[in-house]
Every structure is written in C-alpha cells, then in structure tokens.
Amino acid sequence: MHETPGLAGAAAALGIGLLIGLERERHKGRGDSRACAGLRTFAITALLGYVAMQVGGALLLGIMGGCLALLVSVAYWRSLGSDPGVTSEVALLTVLLLGALCGTAPEQAIAIGVVMAGLLAYREKLHHFARSQLTEAEMRDGLVLLIAALVVLPLTPDRFIGPYSALNLRTLCTLTVMLMAVGAIGHIAVRTLGVRYGYVVSAIASGFASSTMTIAAMGHIARKEPDNLKVLSAAAILSNLATVAQVALILGAVDTALLPYVWGPLLAGLGVTLLFSACLLFPKTAGIASRPIKVGGAFNLKLALAVTLTMAGMTFLSSLMLDRFGQAGVMLTAIFSGFADAHSSTASIASLAKGGHLAYSAVAPPVLLAVSSNALSKCLLAWISGGRRFATYVIPGQILLTSAMWVALLVH
Q: In 119-201, where do the E strands start and end?
C-alpha cells in the first residue's frame, strides 16, 4: 500500500495550526471583546497555506496572503480600542506561511511552530523579564555579544598572519567571543541559581568551551565581588573538570586503547580538583545565599580583549621558540602548544600514536606536559584577571592538580 502523497505535509500543517490556535484560544477572551482568531481559524489558515502552495504555488499563496492580510487589518481596526496589540494578527499570517512550508520542509515548519507557540504561551513572563528583570547594562552587553558572534566573527578572515604565521584573526576573534559568552553564561546562572551554585555550574559548563577563559572570567568577577572570593576560586578550579574530561574524550575518540595509559593521572586530577574545590566552597559559606546578588553587566569587553591579546602573545612566543630551536620532539611541541590549548596538543599526540609514530605507552608524558603548560597559562591569567588574592587560591589548586597527575603517572 502506497502512502498518499502530501499527507504528511498536510498533517504537519494541521498540527501547527492546532498547536498555535489552542494557545490563542486560551487568550482570545469572551463576548464582544474577544480576539479575532482562535483554534479553528488558525487550523484552517495553516491548511489554507498548505493547499494554496500545492495547488497554485507561490502566486496563489501570495493572493491568499494578501486577502488574509486585508481581513486581519479590518479585524485589527475594529478591535483597536480594546486591544491595540497585533500579536494574534501577525501569528495568523505566520501560520499561513508555515502551512505552505510544510509542503517542502515539514520538519523546519514544525520546529518554527513549536518555538512560536512557546513565545506566545510565555508572553507575560517574557514581558516581565524584559521590563523588570533585564537591566540596561545587560541589554547592552547582550547586543554587543550578538553583534560580535553573528556579525563580526563570520566576517573575520580565517588565515594566519604576522611573523612565523603564528596569529589567526578568526581564532583571536573566537577567543574574544568565547570569553564574552562565558561571562554571560555565568551571569545568567548566578541570576537563576544564586551565587554559590550559579558560579559553579556556569564554570563547569563554560569549561568545556575554554577552561582558561573561564578562569579569567571568574577572576574578573572576583575583583568586583571580593566577598565571594572563595566561591569564585572554587568555580575556577572546577572548570578543570572539563579539561580532564575533554582529554579523556579526545584520546578515546582517536583510539580507546590509549585510555588505559592515562586513566591513572586523569582520575588523580579529577579527585584533587573536587577535593580542593570542596574545601573552598563549603566551609564558612552559610551566609552566601542570603547576600543580595549584584546586578550589572553580563561581561567585561576590556577583559575579553586583554585576555585574547595575552593568549596571542603566548602563541607568538611558542611559534618563535619552535622556529628558533626546531622540532625538538613531541615533548617540546606539547609544552609550547599547551600554553594556548591542551586539547589540540592531545589530539596531535593521539594521532601520532594512532599512526604508529609514537608508542602507546609513551603517550601520557607529552599529554601531561601539554596539560601542565596549559595550567601555567591559567595561573598567569588568574593573576592578571583576579589579582593577588584570587591567584592565592587558584594557583595552589592548579599546582596540586598537575602534581597529582604526575605522581599518578609515576606510580602507574
């Protein structure tokens, strides 16, 4: 038995119309003041868009859209005194187009319809958030982040420039956007979960993007909130959990046979990170939850640029040293490339082992060298971003973490 052509698209259009129509029906009101469209109108409009596109193509769909726009304009004019909003009217026109889209891309139309229904259902919460929760500084920072991520970053050329071809403009711009995003994620988490758990959750999550950037962001916050110094230091150390996890994931992705040679150091680093952070996080923090959360900007653009320039300097120095002294082996390469990123070094080392150029039993030392050099750059950025007090907590944590991994390697 063959499936009827277009039946799935018609069902998708009907589902979208019913979903959005159901939400509008709950808010259309009663009596003479009720809104112009409800459950049946939205369902029929979605089917109308689908049928118009199938029968007459874009031309008939345009005619139907013009007629619907005329009807919607009349309905809006009649209800202008009691309801000056145009949400239902615009939603009705959108449903017509989504119904038409179901003929060619039903999955995309359904996804848009679900998002649209969510926006309509949570309108009051969104209005409250925009008017009462969102500050002017947060609005400004959000716009800056969107412009940087969606406009500046895609237009930045992806090529290496400068002496030794060490610097990549796309990479530098990505680091800047990443640091801004880390700060924004932490800000949202703190506003949602509170100081103690918000910083911790955001640091671990942001660490998967860049643990180094996360430590720099926590240091900047520590300068503004010295009362939360221990919590922020614990969050910075906990971002190393992402580094340890990513090293294991990269090695496992290249070849799972590599993991038995590094599981000891990775578990040791994991345990020390959790223990050291717990010592900072829980003692004498009972009053943290009762303190008011300071509401300000979501991130600091100057800090993001300063950290990016620091990382660029480290990368340039690494390239200079490698150019002057040549390829002194995997160890030297791991040390210098690890200053900027331990993950790329780990991937290259694992690839060498997979290709037979390096013994599996010899993988752990260069990987730990990359992690150690990366820990050194984290210590430097902790001092630059957070000052002496922040570095007093973070640097010992990084030293203990790295030392535990090396000790575990020697014992293993």
A: 160-161, 167-168
